[in-house]
Design goal:
The chain is an alpha+beta fold. It has helices at about 15-25, 50-65, 70-80, 85-100, 115-120; strands spanning about 30, 40, 45-50, 70, 100-105, 110. Helix 2 (about 50-65) packs across helix 4. The radius of gyration is 17 Å and the shape is elongated.
């Protein structure tokens, strides 16, 4: 079976990474984490990613209620009560879902996934 995708982790200086991206990219997607809010580098340009704490909040909130589902509005209100902006909330919700930590059900309701109970 041919390999369709390969995820690789390694330590590299920002300068060396920038040089590598400037030379050749071919669909590379990189999440850069550090002491500041993370950035995503795609095709040689960086854009801001949501702060990890908003994603952790959503997962932790759903983990506290493992047998319940919540609408996007309910989750957004809970996040807003903890100081998270709407734009940060929506992108964090997407990342948590894409990472398999939460699941979206019919009617747009969310619930913690098995992976979210163990990780997050």
């Amino acid at each position: 079976m041919p390999i369709k995708e390969l995820n690789v982790s390694f330590r590299i200086s920002v300068e060396a990474l920038a040089q590598a991206l400037a030379t050749s990219n071919s669909g590379m997607h990189i999440d850069v984490l550090g002491t500041e809010a993370p950035k995503q580098i795609t095709n040689g340009s960086a854009k801001q990613l949501p702060a990890p704490s908003a994603r952790r909040f959503i997962v932790a909130f759903l983990r506290q209620h493992p047998d319940q589902t919540f609408t996007t509005k309910q989750l957004r209100e809970a996040a807003a009560n903890h100081g998270f902006s709407a734009s940060n909330f929506y992108s964090s919700l997407t990342y948590a879902r894409n990472d398999g930590l939460i699941r979206k059900y019919a009617g747009g309701k969310y619930r913690i996934a098995k992976a979210g109970l163990a990780n997050g």
